[in-house]
Amino acid sequence: MAEYKGASSEGQRQAMLEKQRAKMLSEFEKQREKIAKYDDVEDSLKKETIGLVKLEDFQKIRKELQVQKEREAARTAELKDDKIKKKRKKKEEKVKLSFNLEDADHEEEDNAIKSEASKKKPKLGKNPNVDTSFLPDRDREEEERKEREQLRLEWLRKQEEIK
């Protein structure tokens, strides 16, 4: 079959439409994933509840399953963020190639000049007296998460005792 050979603007338009189509497909896939996650909760809920169950028990199980799914989603999001940060660090750490064709004598002079410049500027270091409690810290966040979980379980136990 013959290929259409129109103006270049038509080719640009076609490329733009292809990008839009790809974007729509990716959004559709994201929505499908959300629906699948909800269906996952419903399926596990069906497996947990067999026979006649009180409405309160049903709602309790449902909430627990939803909380569990949200935690898993948060963990996967954290892992993705960590991977992205690692990739960025690797890119920053990559050594850049130098195509300097000058003699070694010039390099020694450059190094001497750089060392003098570095001696003139005092490097700023970290101040150990500064309060960093507001900054994100994995260990602190992990401890806080464990404490929250412990308090949640304690609260649930007390609720059961009250009933």
From TrEMBL:
GO BP field: chromatin organization
Disordered: annotated span: 1-22, 69-146
GO (cellular component) term, any one: nucleus
InterPro entries: XAP5
Residue ranges with Basic and acidic residues bias: 69-84, 136-146
Protein name: 3308_t:CDS:1
Originating species: Racocetra fulgida
